[in-house]
Model the fold of this input.
Amino acid sequence: MSSARAILLLIAGCLAAAAAAAAQPKFTELKGNPGLRSASALVLDSQGNLIYAKDVDTVRPIASITKLMTAMVILDAGLDLEQPVTITKQDRDLIRLTGSRLQYGATLSRREMILLALMSSENRAAAALGRTYPGGLDAFVAQMNRKAASLGMANTRFADPAGLHSENVSTAADLAKMIAAAESYPLITEATTTTRLDVRPYANRGPLTYGNTNRLLKNDSWHIELSKTGYINEAGRCLVMQANIEGEEVSIVLLNSFGKLTPFGDSNRLRKWMLASS
Done:
């Protein structure tokens, strides 16, 4: 065998070994327990390998995690994202009576409404997206449920586009499927990782500034590629994320946490546990 061929075979062998090593799950056989306070939790790697699970099949209200499905249904419909959408009385929250800086008559592009619904969990923006869907709100909610079924989310039901109804329910296992699907939409990953956005919904006023509801986006220790928070009384505090931890893509689902900061604390506990045990 020529020396050149021997070198090429050696290089090929090294590359194959490197590829095989890269394909091995990074977070396996982790020791101990992260001590999470969320009622349900699920962590998967990019290949769907289980890293951590806690009560993943219990059906729970998911609050504004719903808005990820809202965005997917709108984007699937191929609607004009630059078309103006105006807030009306039909978009007000009669369930939780939450407020909004988007007053009646506020007008933004459909793209901006998606951005606000996802990054700052703007309920009226989500409601307006559903209301202006072809066929109206009922058709929109029906399509949300069809989309969930197509993703294999057998224990998931949607009742409104904002997540205000406690009838918006899912499981940690189902939401992992929704995260995986949502990751393929560039506008969703952009919106859910944008920390600050200025919009001008009123012709004769200055801009409104919105911030992201996920405080971990401002933490340099985290490399987050998709996220969404949620909260109503029945759901507790919820957080779903797609993140890169030490080069490994992981999906994180945390449901029904007690305390405003608990999902972020649980996320940090998970990360610390994974890195300490790997």
About this structure: The two ends are 41 Å apart (CA to CA). The CA atoms of residues 8 and 122 lie 57 Å apart.
